[in-house]
Amino acid sequence: MKQQIIVSGIGGQGVLFLTRVIAQVAVNTGIPVLTSETHGMAQRGGTVLSTIKVGNFASPLVRTGQADLGLLLWEANLPVHQSLLKADGKLLLNAENTGEGIRIDAAKIARDLGNAVLLNLVLLGLAVQKQVLFCGIEDCETAIKQLAPARFVEQNLAAFHKGLDSNK
Amino acid sequence: MKNQIELLMGNEAIGQGLIEAGCQVAAAYPGTPSTEILQAVIDRQEQAVEPLHIEWSVNEKIAFEVALAASYTGKRSVAVMKQVGLNVAADPFMRTAYIGIKGGMLTIVADDPGPHSSQNEQDTRLFCLQARVPVLDPSSPAEAKAMIQPAFELSEKYETNIVLRPTTRICHSRQNVSLEKPIELKRQADFEPNPTRWAATPAFLPQLHRNLNRHLEEIALEPAWQPRLLSGNESQPRTAFIASGIAYSNLVDLLEELGLDHTIDLYQVLMPYPLNPDFCKLMQKKYDRVLILEETYPVIELQLAHPGAVGKQTGGVPREGELTPDVIHQALADFLQLAPPAEKPAARRGQRPSLCPGCSHRTAFYTIKKCFPKGIFPSDIGCYTLGMNLGAVHTVHCMGACISQGAGFYQAYQQDDGQFPTIVVTIGDSTFFHAGIPALINAVIQQTRMIVVILDNATAAMTGGQPVPHMGVAAGNKPTKAIAIEPLVKASGVEFLETCNPYDHERFEALLKQADSYIRSPEGGVAVLIARHGCIMDPATRKAQKSFTVTIQDNCIGCEKCTSAFECPALSMDRTRNIAVVDQDRCIGCGTCIPVCPVAAIIKEEKS
Lengths: 168, 608
Ligand code: SF4
Ligand code: SF4
Fold this sequence. Notes:
Chain A: Pfam families: POR (PF01558). Chain A: It comes from Desulfuromusa kysingii. The complex is a heterodimer of chains A (168) and B (608). Chain A is α/β, with parallel strands linked by helices. Helices cover 36% and strands 23% of the residues of chain A. Chain A is built from 6 helices and 6 strands; from the N terminus they run βαβββαββαααα. In chain A, helix 2 (78-81) links the parallel strand 4 and strand 5. The two termini of chain A are 27 Å apart. Chain B has 21 helices and 23 strands. In chain B, the strands form 7 sheets. In chain B, strands 3-2-4-5-7-6 form a 6-stranded parallel sheet. In chain B, strands 9-11-10-12-13 form a 5-stranded mixed sheet. In chain B, strand 6, helix 7 (141-158) and strand 7 form a beta-alpha-beta unit. The radius of gyration of chain B is 27 Å and the shape is globular. The complex binds iron/sulfur cluster (2 copies). One iron/sulfur cluster binds next to loops of chain B. One iron/sulfur cluster binds at residues 357-358, 550, 568, 570-571, 582, 587-593 of chain B.
């Protein structure tokens, strides 16, 4: 099993948390994993990119045209990071309007749940529903329970399930 | 029992490795990409089986010296910093090469090729070559951790400081890493005075220098640190790759993707300096052509001096920036005459970073720029560098430079005709303690006339909120003595000192104007304003301040003052209606944008 994933957004949107959840699933399933994250200045609202490589890899970085899956939390990043995707790579976006890729207004769903930041897990739920990720529902739930602060676990799981049940 | 596997960031893996190796004194100054290393030591200190002192030092030089003396007592110690932090610690670092250490000492210096979050992309490995200090170059988080225990042993064997040099892509990568039980060394502090060493005068230095050179020759031959070979299949005879750090990992994945793995001999260099001379000879004998991939400067290439080398010196590998998989692909294609990589679409720039919604630095910069549209604005390293977006930051150089640069601007202007523009220096609280105090004393005694604004948000915000000396807390939230900024400023000879919350536009503006008249008065000198408001990323700040529902009324004239001059990221222009709108997901309801609007279109209401 090998999968290369990119998670793209802007600082403050929860890109890092989503990256950790996906990587934690790999660890829990006993698959080697490498991620690369953006920290520092760019986290102040600038464009941030995480890459996740699941399976036997040496480096966490993704080369142009090699990503199997793109999770975009910020639609405006599409022209910035799209070139990393394979020609047949899957693309999931948080977006209000229609266009390329599988789209969902994850921000709105998250806002209705009480916190716009939860859009990251809504998108994760959608990815699992569309079976474009290497893992399944329970794997993600376990990782979310492990990583979310105790008092937010329920809310986080709710967001994940909204994504799972959406767009059907 | 099987070892526990944890998903660890490179920096956490290093922190965990330090605890497992029995490190007893850990000192650091925060700086991206190194910060989470000491944080991990703090978070994991419960695992340590022996006493462990952890400190956020006031700067890197101090961190290094604290760790150094701890090592003199026979204990294991570490100093942690980012690459430019080593410039600050250069003085003790260079001498340590001659004098040596006692208990194992590591200096962990995180480089930032790119650079992503630094003022340059200097290569610590080249610094080590100049300082004559052995340096290790890990290629993954797991390898960085695995290097720590043997690095301490190497350090103790030769009584020499060893540098571990991870790069951003190691520091901020996560990987499944296995944990070990921390070892118990049972060492008691035992400093043996030996003035010919610890206080060596020039008379003793030639001998110490000879020892250093002999040690380096021996270290270069240490079996555990020799380049590792992944053999090829002779399909490309007399050709080899040499790589180190993340460039090695990138190359390994790339070769596999291209179906070229195990075709060409590939050497991974673990210790780029000192490089084994026998390795260099072997390379010359065995291979006609060698592609060398290393970040950021040609350190291996310099030592290898191979006539068939292709690298940064020959121009076969880009001299600037990261060796990303794409960059390596191009270099590899050129080297092996493969089909060139597909044309990449022109890189589009993403969203630029900006100060957080509700950040008090924004209101400070906005008011400074408003009061002195023709001013000169030296600034410094931290979140507040982003004051650039508001046109209120003209220079950013290195930690603490803004105060001395402000003084330099003043001297150069005033000597012409006595006239000078208003110079407003902005410096963060953490930066002020790090290197601002000597500069302030200097500015005062040189009779500089300028305004220094200390942006006091009670934390080292850029790096994620490490404690600062005036907070009265040390690493791991331990209570300690608080050292207030005001008395330090006064003791530096400053006679105009005021404090204000920059959220209060009016008062801050009035104080800036008062300060300007003061510096222009006969008895004037340096005026200091402390702009004090907690960092908005700190939940306590958010809790303590009122939050409103902020909206924009239809009388907005679309002047864009709030979106460009004030540039709160929660505000943007609705181009179809030509009015500003508030992004309620990002707005924190601080209301500081309200006074900015010329037509009072921004309003606030109590939250329902
Ligand atoms: S109230 Fe105004 S300044 Fe404060 S966060 Fe909201 S839009 Fe930005
Ligand atoms: S809200 Fe006020 S400052 Fe912002 S664009 Fe409209 S008129 Fe200008």
